[in-house]
Amino acid sequence: MPVLQIEDLHVSVDSKAGLEVVHGISIEINEGETVCLVGESGSGKSVSSLATMGLLPKGSLKVTSGRILLDGENLLDLSPAQLRDARATRMSMIFQEPMTALNPVIKVGEQITEVLQAHTKLSNADCHARVMDILDQVGLPDIERIARSYPHQLSGGQRQRIMIAMALVLEPRLLIADEPTTALDVTTQLQILKLIKDLQVKHGTAVLFITHDMGVVAEIADRVYVMNRGDLVEDGPVSQILSAPQKDYTRQLLSSVPSLVPRPARPVTDPKPALQVSELNKIYGGGKFLSKTKTTHAARDVTFELKAGRTLGIVGESGSGKSTVARCVMRMIDPSSGGIRVGGQEIAGLTRGGLHPFRKKLQMVFQDPYRSLNPRLTIEESIIEGPVNYGMPKDQARARAAELLELVGLPASAAQRYPHMFSGGQRQRIAIARALAMEPELLVADEAVSALDVSVQAQVLELLAEIQQRTGIAILFITHDLRVAAQICDEVCVMRRGEVVEIGATGDVLGNPQHEYTQALLSAAPGRDWDFANFRPVAA
Amino acid sequence: MPIYFLRRVLAAIPVMLVVAVFVFLLLRLTPGDPAAILAGDMATPEQLDRIRETLGLNDPLLVQFFRWIGALLQGDFGTSLISNKPVIDLVADRMWPTIWIAIITLSLSVIIAVPMGVLAAWKQGSWVDHLVMTFSVLGFSVPVFVIGYLLIKLFAIDLRWLPVQGYKAPSKDLAGFAARAVLPALTLASIYIALIARMTRASLLDVLNEDYVRTARAKGLTEARVLFRHALRNAAVPVMTVIGTGFALLISGVVVTESVYNIPGLGRLTVDSIFARDYPVIQALILLTSGVYVLVNLLIDLSYSLLDPRIRY
């Protein structure tokens, strides 16, 4: 008998004319098996897993029909108290963002102890022993100290280990993992994936792994279910899904995954440097009178050059200093020392007023398109604000906004609408249009496609390349995603702890990495052995 | 933490000094002559001059100011122009009733309002929620004196459960104190119950959408534990701010209630001294009030770091 058996599950919005969001899906997971549920945002994969746990947000979503059998028992028939008893003991869940999933004001040891207190009658001493044992099992060092820490005192990887410890302390039959590694760096991701696998083998747990990342799927799945807009598109063993997908949607999803094999660099057409950064340093902290704080060297002697019409990628994990460099270049923060030349003009030491004429030449596209557009301004108002600020007459700015919207592939009618009426990909197009309105010479894109689904990501990357070809703009592309870097960048600069460890043509750096850190990053990239777009292993 | 505390205390000194200057000038520049009030209607100009001379009212303002500040620093708040008692004794006598009422009011408010807010947030959109919200709108909009007289009419005159007015010190007669304190405390509490309940509800609604609340439910914890252990503490910081500010406002804002219930506290002392233009007493009261504000704000800030370990100074 399967551990989890979902039969013809329907989930609707909890209202009179309830819109259905999951249209009758069926999923089966056996003991010791890892099943991946993949799909883009809005596919209903998280909703299905929350329905299983009985955690659908009250008043907004409800199960309308179907059965969810855990070891043959229908969870939908259980009373709230019975369902509570089943959580953590027979089924557990871990979530995407370990920072927000842990309670910030309670020590992590207590948060794990709480599970034992809620479901067992162990004495305090036994509880403590169990907690220490599971912390040890998830590979945390110095467990007594960690148990007494608050979540903000731990790293992202440590926090996710705590979440896993909390989920597995009572050895449930089923573990649901909802994008558990999406918020983590690749090297940490690799460790967490391995940990889940190890614990699964040890305890025979059935794992339902929800992800949008085909790389992760290739790495861990036994079987795969593909979802799209509330429907189950296709399912099968991982090898079959990756090498011989039957449905168009699955093929399209796999084809959108950017390849790790770098595209060839384009020939230099314009030798004029758009941006020169030399020996840039940024030191945070140091404190003031009576409040000495530790200093952090966030950028150390960073030097690179970017020519007009080309794209330079800065890649690295969190804390590598890549965003610090981007912000220094934009002069959103003041560099501690070093030079930043834009179009040959030094801007590192300029005051606010002196910087004013150069702001126009530097524009930025941010990571989260849901938060980087002012929700109270229409799209047109957002786009014309900058040019009008620099003296362009309003009518002219409006006409320009219409052109730009066309350029980024949005209808002219979009101008009078508000950001919430657009999807994530459309919003990122709007953000690009807003940046281009200033006719900049340099576009800084800080993780500009990281929040987007792969198919949308592919479109936005294409758009950026097209705009670059048309306008000759230089792009500084900050990303943690080596796949994206391999496809869009001419040159790549790899950063670690504030330092540039390797810089050069993308083909060289990612094709034949010299520095051990670059090699480590590449070998941690999930699914590196699979050529998704061609449905076959990477040719050796 | 001790360094932070010290810095906050030091930072309070210029604030208090500005208050002192303001207080001093405000009263000297308002019309009305204390000497004339002291002397009564029948006084001759010579008598008035003599009174002014003894009180130092003829000296230049600057001299008066430094003489006043110098005395303040030695704990001498002057002598009441009316009763001739030291101001510090007058204030100390009247302080306790006010502080007791404030403490009871706030305890009552917290005990009633926090569970109300939690319940409203938990059952958002239900009749419980609507009831709580309606009540809090009423609490805000009905004036204090109306509630005061309504409560007296109901509990003291019609039902005869409680005395109409007055005050007994809790050290002398605890039951008498409680019986006399409950109506004024309820009257004052109405607005704080409204405020704290709304704040708790709003703050908790935010927190209930957080991921860690979902995690707590995924662990199979009971709803009570999810609400009170996981959600409420995270929602407590804004609520704490309201409670602290509420305490400071209570110390300074009890004028109406003390008049309605005839309580010999700071509120009545303030009203009496203003009518009598009793400068030294008014000055001491304003200084005391600002001192309470500064102290309460310091305590609120310190409470943040106890509630939330991420906040460190």
Automatic annotation (TrEMBL), chain A:
For this UniProt entry, what is the primary localization, expressed as one broad class? Answer: membrane
Q: Which Pfam families does the record associate with it? A: ABC_tran, oligo_HPY
GO MF annotations in UniProt: ATP binding; ATP hydrolysis activity
Assigned keywords, A-Z = ATP-binding, Cell membrane, Membrane, Nucleotide-binding, Transport
Q: Which GO terms describe its biological process?
A: peptide transport; transmembrane transport
Q: Where in the cell is it found?
A: Cell inner membrane
- Membrane topology for this entry? Peripheral membrane protein
The Gene Ontology CC terms held by the record are: plasma membrane
Q: Record's SUPFAM superfamilies?
A: P-loop containing nucleoside triphosphate hydrolases
What InterPro entries would the database entry show?
A: AAA+_ATPase, ABC_Ni/Peptide_Import, ABC_transporter-like_ATP-bd, ABC_transporter-like_CS, Oligopep_ABC_C, P-loop_NTPase
Family per similarity comment:
Belongs to the ABC transporter superfamily.
Q: What name has this protein been given in UniProt?
A: ABC transporter ATP-binding protein
UniProtKB/TrEMBL annotation, chain B:
Q: Which Pfam families would you find in this protein's record?
A: BPD_transp_1, BPD_transp_1_N
Ranges of residues in domain ABC transmembrane type-1: 95-300
> Where is it localised?
Cell membrane
The cross-references to SUPFAM superfamilies, in alphabetical order and at most eight, read:
MetI-like
Any GO BP annotation: transmembrane transport
**Keywords of this entry:** Cell membrane, Membrane, Transmembrane, Transmembrane helix, Transport
Q: Does the keyword Membrane apply?
A: yes
A single GO CC term for this protein reads: plasma membrane
Q: Provide the membrane topology annotation.
A: Multi-pass membrane protein
> Does the entry feature the keyword Cell membrane, yes or no?
yes
**Transmembrane domains' residue ranges:** 9-27, 99-122, 134-157, 177-197, 235-261, 281-307
Name the family: Belongs to the binding-protein-dependent transport system permease family.
Query: What's the name of the protein?
Result: ABC transporter permease
